[in-house]
Amino acid sequence: MKILRTRSELRSHREGLAPGVRLGLVPTMGALHEGHLSLVRQAALECDQVWATIFVNPLQFGANEDLSRYPRPFERDVALLESVDCDVLFAPEASEVYHPDSSTRVIESHVSQPLCGSVRPGHFEGVTTVVLKLLNLVQPSDAYFGQKDAQQCAVIERMVRDLDVPVRLHRGATIREASGLAMSSRNVYLSEDERRVAPRLAAALDAMVIAFQQGQTGGRELEQLGRQQLEATPFEVQYLEIRDTLTLERVEKARKGATVFAAAFLGRTRLIDNRQF
Ligand code: PAF
To answer: What is the Å distance from ligand 1's center to 252 Cα?
Structure first.
């Protein structure tokens, strides 16, 4: 696997590829897990070349968030990417990505507003800005994002549609531990006790899906059920809402294809998860 650190290395490597090559991009912030690796495998099946990026994007972290302590196990990440035959890793420093006087941002102003958008102001602006920059730099034919970050997928899809970005987007399925806990780079923050409780978030969403399959369609009733499941746990729910998967509009009556989105704190660790009905 070739490791590129600078924009100019990236450009010259990209220019060396044959025109029309199918290039799959997997943007990440590192601290890779099976969720990321499954995206690389999916890209490898569909593309001629797979490129990954590792960049802990300061622009998408709020002032009191975990930018400085975000895990950065670079050597391990490189070995994992090599194990799934990733062709190129672009791992730039922040100074390589953002000009010191950078003053342009990409703002999606609808899908990014509720849920994480309302509790993490500026977060999606940071995501869309860096993702558009990575797409512009790498010029992939395809890009892969995990369904675990379902709102992020919807925001990026909207940006790509609205700005006519020439890339095909793919959502990769959420990969879960045997307990049901969705894999996340932030799971390393969990203590042993918290790890035992963490799967209850996915279990609460599962209970909602089961109730829906058994005929309950009232959105508020289903949300209430999900919250009740978490009441007896140390989870502090930040949001648990049923919304349209693509527009993120609130859904009064649950329907097939709608999504329940959840974010909850376990101690200091914020976990998100979602399920489609
Ligand atoms: O999902 C992530 O890891 C990040 O938000 C992304 C898409 C790599 C942008 O920094």
So the answer is: 30
What are the structure tokens assigned to 272, written together? 């998100």
- Predicted structure pTM score: 0.98
> Are 61 and 126 within 8 A, CB to CB?
yes
Topology of domain 2-172, CATH: Rossmann fold (3.40.50)
Could you say which architecture CATH assigns to the domain 190-269?
2-Layer Sandwich (3.30)
Within 139-198, residue ranges assigned H as helices are 150-162, 192-197
- Counting ligand 1 atoms within 8 A of each CB, the residue from 70, 152, 156, 167 with the most, and so the one to mutate, is 152
Long-range contacts of range 66-71, CB-CB < 8 Å, 24 or more positions apart?
66/186, 66/189, 70/29, 70/31, 70/185, 71/30, 71/31, 71/185, 71/188
Instruction: Give the torsion through C-alpha atoms of 178, 181, 182, 188, to 10 deg.
Output: -110
pLDDT tens column, 21-73: 999 999 999 999 999 999 999 999 999 999 999 999 999 999 999 999 999 99
The amino acid at 4: L
Domain residue ranges in the chain: 2-172, 190-269
Label residue 184 left, alpha or beta by phi (over 0 means left) and psi (-120 to 50 means alpha). beta
